Fold this sequence. Notes:
alpha+beta, 2 domains, seven-stranded mixed β-sheet, 4 helices, 13 strands, disordered N terminus
Amino acid sequence: MRRYLCIGLVFLLAVSLFHGCGSALSNVNQSTVYVQKKGTILSADIEELDKEYYNESELEDYITSQVDAYQKEHGERVFMESFSVEDGVAKLMMKYVSFEDYQAFNGIELYNGNVVKAQADGYDFDTEFASVSENEKTKVSKEDVLAEDDCNVVIIGANTDVKVDGTILFVSDSNTIVTGKNTVSVIGDEASEEAELTYIIYK
C-alpha cells in the first residue's frame, strides 16, 4: 500500500487476500508480508494518512481498478479482501497466488523457494548473516547458511514485517530485527520504500 497510496503525488497500490484469509493478519498493526507454506502470499498494508489529501472512496476505486486490470491480463491471481480507513489509518488486506504475482503487481522484489533453487535462480546470498535463536542473533558465515541447502528462503526488497510458515534459522544481519520464531522486521532508509535484498532462511 505504501507504494501506491495517493497522498498528493504519492500512489497506493493494493495488495490482496482471498476471501476467508483476512484472519491470518487481522491483528497486525504494521505492514506485513506473510509467505504461506503453499506459496501463497498474504499482505496487510497499513498507512497513516493526512485527511486533507485523500478520499477513501477514490482510493478504494483506484485499488479495485488495479486489481481488475491485473486479473484481466493474468487471470484471477490477485484479490483484494478489504480496504478501510479509520482514524486516519488506511488498512488494505490482500492475497496473491504466488510470489511472482506479488512482485509483478507491486513492483517489489520477492522470492520464495529453497536455498538451492534460489542460487540456481541467480541469488548470490552476498550479505552478512546471523543465526537466530530465541529471537537473538549471532553472526555466522555465508557458508554456514548455504550448507542448509534444503531449507526455505524468502528474499525481499522492501522495508516491511515478514512472516513465514516455519522457524527462522538465519537472517540478513544488518537490516533486520527478529520479533518471533517466524517473524522479522526489515528496516532501512525511511526516506525510501525500497530496501536492499533481505534473506530470511527457515525450515
